[in-house]
Write a structure and sequence with these properties.
The structure holds two protein chains of two kinds. Chain A is built from no helices and twelve strands. Chain A is mainly β. In chain A, the strands form three sheets. In chain A, strands 2, 5, 6, 10, 11 and 12 form a six-stranded mixed beta sheet that branches. A four-stranded antiparallel beta sheet of chain A has the order 3-9-8-7, with no helix packed on it. In chain A, a hairpin with a 2-residue loop joins β7 and β8. The mean pLDDT of chain A is 91. By secondary structure, chain B is an all-beta fold. Helix content of chain B is 0%, strand content 51%. Chain B is built from no helices and eleven strands. In chain B, the strands form two sheets. In chain B, strands 2, 4, 5, 6, 9, 10 and 11 form a seven-stranded mixed beta sheet that branches. Chain B has a four-stranded antiparallel beta sheet with strand order 1-3-8-7, with no helix packed on it. The relative contact order of chain B is 0.33. The mean pLDDT of chain B is 92. Classes of the chains: A mainly beta, B mainly beta. At the A-B interface, β5 and β6 of A face β5, β9 and β10 of B.
Chain lengths: 116, 113
């Protein structure tokens, strides 16, 4: 079945540091890949997405590139801010004919804390 | 646009009670899903729907019921609450297949005592 593995947290950084959160996936075919962010006490927000190999998703200074050869979708940001403190989830949807096409499979989340 | 609206935001139930968590979206999305979020477990799919009148089970469906009589609404029913159902519940909707992300509601925090 489909699965997503992301780096264990928590991750603690100083403001303006470089961020990488690793994400790898297992799925046959060509899944669509997502990063979601959850701020304290809120629901999940879509941060960025990529739907095919070598696509780069970007938003709010965050980037992730769909690497089919390494089955990875690592999240990066060049200079984090205190306001980036949140839980980040990597997720995938794999499309196939018939069956459960619509399930969003999540990693377990990575808590990021950015200190001033 | 209101997006995905969940009510209530907080609820405390006694073991054995039943209740319905409400979810409504105003984006004319076909697909809707219910997830529960537990510490260390990420988000797990309870039930999902690909259109009015069509629902199916996810990973953890036991103890929950759903129906989808309209495009807008997708209520989740707890039949007989148990302490193991203490969790944060999220409803989500999407307008199409995998290329589109899901939009999430703000969640319902449920405690069963």
């Amino acid at each position: 079945g489909n699965s997503v593995t992301q780096m264990e947290g928590p991750v603690t950084l100083s403001e303006e540091a470089f961020l990488t959160i690793n994400c790898t996936y297992t799925a046959t075919g060509y899944p669509s890949l997502f990063w979601y962010v959850q701020y304290p006490g809120e629901g999940l927000q879509l941060l960025l997405k990529a739907t095919k190999a070598d696509d780069k998703g970007s938003n709010k200074g965050f980037e992730a590139t769909y690497r089919k050869e390494t089955t990875s979708f690592h999240l990066e940001k060049g200079s984090v801010q205190v306001s980036d403190s949140a839980v980040y989830f990597c997720a995938l949807i794999r499309l196939r004919s018939g069956g459960s096409n619509y399930k969003l499979t999540f990693g377990k989340g990575t808590l990021l804390t950015v200190n001033p | 646009n209101a997006g995905v609206t969940q009510t209530p935001k907080f609820q405390v139930l006694k073991t054995g009670q039943s209740m319905t968590l409400q979810c409504a979206q105003d984006m004319n999305h076909e697909y809707m899903s219910w997830y529960r979020q537990d510490p260390g477990m990420g988000l797990r799919l309870i039930h999902y729907s690909v259109g009015a009148g069509i629902t199916d089970q996810g990973e953890v469906p036991n103890g929950y019921n759903v129906s989808r009589s309209t495009t807008e609404d997708f209520p989740l029913r707890l039949l007989s609450a148990a302490p193991s159902q203490t969790s944060v519940y999220f409803c989500a909707s999407s307008r199409g297949q995998g290329g589109y992300g899901y939009t999430f509601g703000s969640g319902t925090r449920l405690t069963v005592v």
